[in-house]
Predict the 3D structure of the following.
Amino acid sequence: MRATGSCKPFEKEYFRRDGSRAPILIAGALFEWKRDEGVAFVIDMTDRKRAEEKLRASEQRLLDAQMQLAHITRVTTLGELTASIAHEVNQPLAAVVNAAAACLRWLDRGTPTWTKRAALWIGSSRKAIGRVR
């Protein structure tokens, strides 16, 4: 301090009588007009450190809430997409089932001999479509 006339502020941790730690900010400077006199300060930074910790914890909770909201948004979007795909797949399957039912009714009228084979084919198609649903 004698060489430069000042001491840059620095933090140091001291122990209190109760054993807890106390962060302290220390700095000092000599007067230009009288080098054997000066001013120094020692500031207890405990409250500031506590406030910084609370701010960090609050920011972390905000980040966690934002991440949770983003996850919920993705899950909701996925559910909507699933419902849309199910609808798009279900529509043609319903049309196929209706057409197969119409074919079975048409075949029940007792027309050509291939009706039994066609009825089996349509029946197995209906079962397959039922499994896809």
About this structure: The beta strands are 6-15, 21-30, 38-44. The CA atoms of residues 54 and 60 lie 10 Å apart. The chain has two helices and three strands.
